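Structure ticket #2291
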Amino acid sequence: MVMRRVGLYPGTFDPVTLGHLDIVKRAVKLVDHLVIGVATNPSKSPMFTLPERMEMVRREATPLAEGRATISVETFDSLLMQFAEKMGASVIIRGLRAVSDFEYEFQMVAMNQRLNSEIETVFLMADPRHQAIASRLVKEIAMLGGNVAPFTSPYVAELLVARCAEKRKAQNGS
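Resolution: structure written out below.
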């Protein structure tokens, strides 16, 4: 029996950015199957609903497998390590943009290792073209009417612009 290496790339993906997609494209080189775990994180007050985020990720990430691996998009609302175990993941994939990301991720790895030392965490450095991209900043740019095309796919940019227009309209009471 051939064992498949399953990787888990977790995130909120609100919205999915070119930085996220770059990590997916590189992660499929490391695993046989990549589970993209879309977290339900109400504390982040997402702009897009869970089904919207899952559809965005599925539409944008699935073609990136390029015959190297399979990709599935799943939702989770549990501890990351519980979800990783449920998915049969042996590795968690995380992207790093800056030193500040490393400090947070370093703490998370230490805690996750205590919960399950059999699951490794692999960090992929962000492509220099995508190091400044953060979903939070992309949403802010969109809310202020800026151009988000350099940070997301055309499909996601269109959804983001439309959602921001809805929010501005609601805020103005019209």
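Closing remark: The chain has six helices and five strands.
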